[in-house]
Design a protein that fits this description.
The protein is an alpha/beta fold. It contains 13 helices and ten strands.
């Protein structure tokens, strides 16, 4: 019932939504936010600020919130929960999204969800991962990596590396092509994906063939202009970023300088896998994604970069209520499909 009510509200004409959320369009740095997102931001201000909640309460609140906004999962694929039996440690929980393509080994995307390494889970990106599998033909393995504060940096990185290695080395058994293993994620998941790509190069291991980075956080101490311009825009604010940092790191000022924390600080990006990088215009992280894309290009890495100027952070979880978000995720998936041939 709540989801139906939200959908009905967000289907109101844009001028009505603006009237309900302040009366004037929100324009920052020449960009105008989607009126549905402006309305959601106004409604979000009526809720307790995320940074005032315990991590457990924040996970519950954001999970319930995105469930109201997201679309429906694809139904033309097989979905099952699996365990990645990583050697020497407890297995990592994951979810497999398998296209129904008989007699064919398909590309494999190892995917990491958003949430600042503090919130989020397999449900956060469930709809998006299902649509990727359905529309791109990729087998998707969504990874339930460990979260802070019980598991601080570099626990999430260790899980991301272990999961990628296991999937890469066991792709055929999963139904995938061992020569076409990709890595990707949104926000914190984009950060983890960038780290995986860099670490495989650094350690001279077989790398992912492509990195899919959606509004990635690549520098935890970043103070770019967008951190200020869009630092109070729903749903990710500068204060929430500080909240994530405080829970994820033991010593922020030291740990965040590690390349496994801030891959955007890496001085040599040459030889990394091709990248598809996407940002949202109304996002404190927009400059980070743009700058990382440009740095990769300068280093000779093939890059496709798009910025969805009217959207906000976390739009991949809003496909059921924000048409522009749905259009964006379908374009991202189309880009991915073309990139993997």
């Amino acid at each position: 019932m709540r989801k139906l009510l939200v959908q009905l509200l967000l289907n109101l004409p844009g001028k009505w939504l603006l009237a309900l959320s302040g009366g004037k369009p929100l324009i920052i740095d020449g960009r105008t936010i989607d009126p549905r997102l402006q309305f959601l931001g106004a409604m979000g201000k009526r809720q307790p600020p995320l940074e005032t909640l315990t991590p457990a309460a924040a996970r519950k609140a954001t999970g319930e919130g995105f469930a109201l906004l997201d679309g429906g999962a694809a139904t033309d694929i097989d979905i099952d929960d699996i365990q990645l039996p990583v050697a020497g440690r407890k297995a990592i929980a994951a979810r497999r999204y398998m296209p129904k393509l008989p007699n064919r080994l398909v590309p494999v995307l190892v995917y990491f969800h958003m949430g600042g390494c503090v919130i989020g889970d397999l449900e956060t990106c469930h709809v998006f991962c299902s649509q990727i599998a359905s529309r791109s033909g990729c087998l998707v393995i969504s990874v339930d990596y460990r979260l802070a504060p019980p598991h601080k940096f570099p626990a999430a990185v260790e899980d991301a590396l272990a999961a990628f290695r296991w999937v890469r080395d066991n792709a055929r058994a999963l139904g995938g092509n061992p020569n076409m293993v990709l890595v990707g994620g949104d926000s914190a998941g984009g950060y983890l994906s960038a780290v995986v790509a860099q670490e495989m190069k650094r350690l001279n291991e077989k790398p992912p063939v492509l990195q899919l980075l959606i509004y990635p956080a690549v520098d935890w101490l970043s103070q770019t202009a967008s951190m200020k311009s869009f630092g109070e825009v729903y749903p990710l604010t500068g204060t929430i970023m500080a909240y994530f940092r405080s829970h994820y790191f033991v010593n922020v000022e030291v740990d965040a300088l590690d390349l496994k924390a801030s891959p955007g600080l890496c001085k040599d990006l040459s030889g990394l896998p091709p990248a598809l990088i996407y940002t949202a215009g109304f996002d404190p992280l927009v400059d980070q994604g743009r700058d990382y894309a440009e740095a990769l290009k300068i280093a000779g890495v093939p890059v496709l970069y798009r910025c969805y100027e009217s959207l906000t952070h976390a739009f991949t979880a809003m496909s059921g209520t924000v048409p522009a978000a749905r259009t964006a995720i379908f374009e991202i998936i189309a880009d991915l499909r073309r990139a993997i041939g």
